[in-house]
Design a protein that fits this description.
Keywords: Signal. The protein is of the alpha+beta class. Helices cover 29% and strands 35% of the residues. It folds into 2 domains: 18-25 and 216-321, no CATH class; 47-210, Trna Endonuclease, Chain: A, domain 1 (3-Layer(aba) Sandwich). A hairpin with a 5-residue loop joins strand 4 (89-93) and strand 5 (99-103).
């Protein structure tokens, strides 16, 4: 009898591991990405008519590699490279400019390099990329900021943080009419520039950034996001055949919908996907194609903050965007 009980317990544990394997790593995979999209959404609320581009991978000619940029904010009069420091604890700055973070009951400390240095380094890289694509920005138009959005972030002495840093307290106090923390370096020439020129520059900048290399992204149920690289689908052969056209070279976005018939949910999902020619939001429904697959079909995805490849069931996925 004990043998049967032990075998049953082992089988139950294996079943739970299979069913909930994604959840064990979900918080780790989504924490930073969720912070990025939360910051992006609030910035677009603070700046009417602005646009935020999240998870950019900008080619750098000098290093021959792609440089990760958390986000770029484009407003009517300026553009910002923004780094998001989603850290918690008591944060101070040492004599070398490093950030010293003390967190937890054990008072463990962690030393981080000054994030403003990295953010400033990314500004000319993005400027060079934009210039290669025909978008020449006026001097000073593009600058950098570091935002600390974690509610458990506590600055030991906020006065010692450089002006490029927006601490959590400052972040929560920002209002739509308070632009000074994110602005302040716009030259008088920009203010007097013709409105038509600014609109033209803004349009070119947004058009270029919208087609720049980005991380792939998964949107999961529960308002969770994961940035990384889509690898492949896993599942039954007929489901894989139905999804065979969803490739990076052909598809920019897919949306997963659950199907119900006569009020009863089926274990089948409708996957709508659009070609790269229709990357912008608002594409007509006739431009989307569909595939019917089982809800157990999995998306194999490599999060950008993890060394391990993860599998997420399509039943937990709301949408996926693929960068060209």
């Amino acid at each position: 009898m004990w043998v049967e009980l032990i075998c049953g317990l082992v089988l139950f544990c294996l079943l739970m591991l299979y069913l909930f394997d994604d959840g064990d790593h979900l918080d780790l995979d989504t924490s930073h990405s969720n912070a990025l999209f939360a910051v992006a959404n609030r910035l677009e609320q603070l700046y009417y008519g602005s646009k935020v581009y999240v998870g950019l991978q900008i080619p750098d000619a000098d290093s021959g590699s792609r440089q990760n940029i958390d986000m770029v904010l484009v407003t009517k009069g300026e553009a910002l490279v923004i780094s998001v420091m989603n850290i918690s604890g008591f944060v101070s700055i040492d004599k070398n400019g490093n950030w010293v973070c003390t967190a937890g009951l054990s008072n463990k400390t962690k030393c981080l390099p000054d994030p403003t240095v990295e953010t400033k380094r990314l500004v000319p890289i993005l400027e060079a990329y934009l210039e290669q694509r025909g978008v020449v920005l006026p001097e000073g138009y593009l600058s950098g900021k570091v935002i600390c959005p974690n509610p458990n972030f506590s600055a030991v002495d906020s006065d010692v943080f450089p002006p490029e840093v927006i601490t959590y307290d400052q972040w929560t106090q920002l209002k739509p009419e308070q632009r000074s923390m994110l602005s302040g370096w716009i030259k008088g020439a920009f203010r007097s520039a013709k409105k038509e020129m600014q609109e033209s520059l803004n349009e070119k900048l947004c058009s270029t950034l919208s087609t720049a290399p980005m991380w792939d992204r998964l949107e999961l149920k529960g308002n969770k996001y994961i940035l990384g690289e889509f690898m492949e689908f896993k599942g039954k052969q007929d489901d894989l055949q139905a999804l065979i056209n969803i490739r990076r070279s052909k598809v920019s976005r897919l949306i997963v919908q659950k199907i119900s018939m006569f009020g009863f949910a089926r274990s089948t999902l409708q996957v709508l996907y659009s070609p790269h020619d229709y990357r912008n939001e608002g594409a007509a429904s006739s431009e989307w194609k569909e595939a019917m697959v089982r809800s157990s079909t999995e998306v194999v995805f490599q999060p950008n903050n993890s060394t391990k490849v993860r599998k997420y069931k399509l039943s937990s996925v709301i949408s996926m965007s693929l960068s060209a």
